[in-house]
Structures are given as C-alpha cells and as structure tokens.
TrEMBL record:
Motif interval(s): GXSXG: 66-70
Any one of the GO CC terms: membrane
Single Gene Ontology BP annotation: glycerolipid metabolic process
Coiled coil feature spans: none
Domain of life: Eukaryota
Domain PNPLA: 20-223
Protein name: Phospholipase
Record bears the keyword Repeat: no
Motif DGA/G, residue numbers: 210-212
PANTHER family, alphabetized: CALCIUM-INDEPENDENT PHOSPHOLIPASE A2-GAMMA
Transmembrane segments: none
Active site per database record: S68 (nucleophile), D210 (proton acceptor)
C-alpha cells in the first residue's frame, strides 16, 4: 500500500495552505471519513487524469486538527499516515472493540461521581494495537522531532482548568515543549477520553478528559494554531489559505430524557455540546463569509438521518454510511465538494515555507 503513494506535487500554486478540521462525535466519526473519502476519491481521479499518482490526506493537508473522535482520526491520518480506506477499517474495528462491552450503565458511581461507561483499558489497548500495527512503538512521541510535513494537532480538556489544551506532533516556535511530551497513544487517549464514556488519562502531572467538553468543533483552535505557525506576527491567516475544510459528525438532534439525575446530566451535556458545535460553525462561517464566497472555506456536516445514532452505536455503521452517501449526493453538497477538490488540486505540496 505504501509504495502506491508519494508526495508528488499537486497543481501549480505552492503558496496556499490546506487545512482540515474534524469534529468530535463518537461512532459518528465514520461520517467524517466517508465525506473525506469522497473528497480524496475526486481528487485522485483528477490526479490520475493528469498522469499523477494518488495521494493520502497527509500528503495534501499542511495541518489536520481534531477533537475527540476527530482527534483520533487526525492522528491516524496525519501521524500514522493512513489512507482513508485504511482509516475507515481501523476506526470501525476500534469502535466495535471499545463499545461492545459496557462496564457502567450510566457513567456515574454509586456516590454520584463520574465513572466511565466503557473500559479505558480496552480503549488504550485498542489504540496501542493500531499504533504497533503501523510499525510504531507504543512509547513513540506524538512529536518525533523531525521536520513535519503534515502537522497534527488534537484538542484535549485539562481537568484542572476545564480549558482546551492542544497536543502537537511538532514544536511550535516560541512555545516551550511540554515537560512530559505525549506519546502517540497518550495523545489519542487524551483527546478521546470522553467523561461520559471513559476515565480520564494522566500525562505527566496533567489529567485530561476529551476535548469535546471545550472544543467539540475545533475550527477556531485550528485557525488559531495555523496562524501561530505561519503568520504569528499578523495573525491574519485568511490570505494564506488555499483550502480550509471543516467536517462534522452529523447533527444528532435533541432528545428528551427521563428525569433521572445522572441521565439528565448526560443529556444536558450532550445537548450543550451539540448546540456549541453548531454555534461555533455558524460564527466561523460569518467571519469567513468572504472565503466561503471565494470557495476557500467549506463545512460539510450531515444534517438529517443521524439523529438516532448515539455516540457509542457501533452497530449502526451501515446507517451512518448510507445517510452520509445520501448527503453527498445532494446537488448543493456535490457542487461544494467539487469546488473543494479544485482548491486541493491547486495546492502544490505540504512543504510550505513560513509566510512571516
């Protein structure tokens, strides 16, 4: 598989960034991958017609940022350099292993304290196997110290402050490196340590729960991070972007639930997360309206059909795929996807000099 791909130049314009932002959403993260599969398939068809070899996301995007499910996918695509099909197969297997056995029905202990509904050990073992299957050691750092091609940034939530922490596969100039650098496994575990589903994870002297609590839609974090990397002085990222893609995990809707204190808390947390995700998307779209009109910024997110797919419903993969494919066939979505691919075609390579 690896020999099929290389980082052959894409298009004619080396002076624009391609950025990818991935939301959180549990098993519905497969919807992200089905959308990205459609984008990459169209891109590689265009490349084939130009007698160029196919490329993986890590050879197209300068920065991939994600939260929770999106963070895990970002690591698989960017740091482990998977193609989309491999990532789909891997994520599907992960979901089944992680969510097939509950260890706590409600996510609360008998004293009312938060407890993971699923085994954190199973999660870590599953992630470790994915990492080792790709030829890495479980202790290998997320940031290996090498000049990055595709940068990866994942969001986690520091339990002590409830603020968003960014874990990086690269060194950010002017920012001190963490005292205890996260491993690939540790970063994946930190970004996906959903309070309602898994126990927190500790790296060094910091304890993390998943980034969805503070940045389920990480688009603002990705924008700010890209500005810190490529235009730290002006902080004006827009002139430097060739294509900025944000992909959601589908709108799950809002459901009423019985007035059981634990379930009510979980329901309210999920509703708040969904509300904030859409609010963040709308605010960003308002700020980037000109870039939307110029076909530079794109947001893809299934709006109908995933309302009954809970975050842990691994058995509903078929519904997720069928619903996402229907969404991609909508004329307006298909048109935007085509424009999106043209933006990626115009991108020459991920090796872009600083714009400062």
């Amino acid at each position: 598989m690896e020999s099929v791909y290389n980082a052959a130049p894409i298009g004619k314009h080396p002076d624009g960034l391609c950025l990818l932002s991935l939301d959180g959403g549990g098993v519905r993260g497969l919807s992200i991958l089905y959308i990205l599969r459609a984008i990459m398939a169209r891109l590689n068809v265009e490349r084939q017609e130009a007698n160029l070899p196919p490329v993986r996301p890590c050879e197209v995007f300068d920065l991939i940022g994600g939260t929770s499910t999106g963070g895990l996918i970002a690591i698989m695509l960017g740091r482990l350099e998977m193609d989309v099909e491999e990532c789909i197969d891997t994520y599907s297997g992960l979901s089944q292993k992680i969510f097939s056995q509950k260890q706590n029905r409600f996510g609360f202990g008998w004293k009312g304290d938060l407890k993971g509904r699923f085994s954190a050990e199973n999660l870590e073992e599953a992630i470790s196997k994915v990492v080792s299957d790709k030829g890495f050691n479980n202790s290998d750092p997320l940031d290996n110290g090498k000049p990055p091609g595709c940068r990866v940034m994942v969001c986690a939530c520091a339990r002590e402050t409830q603020g968003t922490t960014r874990l990086r596969s690269y060194n950010l100039p002017g920012k001190p490196a963490p005292k205890v650098p996260p491993s690939i496994v540790g970063a994946a575990r930190a970004t996906s340590a959903a309070t309602r589903f898994f126990d927190p994870v500790t790296i060094g002297n910091r304890t993390y729960v998943d980034g969805a609590l503070s940045a389920n839609n990480p688009i603002d974090e990705v924008e700010d991070e890209a500005a810190s990397i490529w235009c730290p002085t002006t902080r004006d990222l827009k002139p430097h972007v060739k294509c900025f893609i944000s992909i959601g995990t589908g709108n799950p809707g809002k459901h009423s639930i019985q007035d059981h204190s634990a379930l009510k808390f979980l329901s309210e947390t999920l509703v708040q997360m969904v509300t904030e995700t859409e609010k963040t998307a709308n605010k960003f779209a308002s700020r980037w309206r000109e870039q939307i009109e110029k076909k530079v910024y794109f947001r893809f997110n299934v709006q109908q059909g995933l309302q009954d797919v809970s975050l842990e419903a691994y058995s509903k993969e078929g519904i997720i795929e069928a619903t996402t494919e229907e969404y991609l066939e909508e004329s307006e979505v298909a048109l935007r996807l085509g424009h999106c691919v043209q933006g990626l075609i115009d991108k020459q390579s991920v090796c872009i000099p600083d714009f400062t």
